[in-house]
Amino acid sequence: MFLKGESIFIRALEPSDANILYQWENNMDLWPVSFTQIPFSRFILEEFVNSAHNDIYTSKQLRLMVNSLHDNSTIGIIDLFEFDPQHLRCGLGIYIHESYRKQGAAHECIDLIKKYCFNTLFLKQVYVQVNTSNTASLALFEKAGFEKNGLKKSWTKTGVDSYEDVWFLQCINSGG
User: Could you tell me the pTM of the whole model?
Assistant: First the structure.
């Protein structure tokens, strides 16, 4: 257990996580928010899980799993990416399986990871990018203390000739 909250805990990747990552990474419904367009092979995901991606200073990213304290089941993923140790910032991505949504797990996860980013990594800020149509995520991040600080026009391609705007939100560490 890495970070523990009231109902969830966040932990490092384990080799057995390749199976659930295979399911989630290849769910085409999630691709628009994960900014991917290609499937991942089980081999690639096993290599990722077993590689040295656990050092954020080397790989500039950190993927963690979110588990329920109630039954120890894996309910989601949290990613820190584009880690910039010079400017003390990183991007944040979160996925909570639909059967665990609207129960407070995502908000608790964001609170835990913000504390880790600000109190352990000593970051100045964490940021997210959210499609304007993703009102649930916008509300979640705003409730978690992120502020809309820019609108990226026609940022995400959604079809042959269609694009969607993306909000850029930041959470600034006021203590550092």
Answer: 0.87
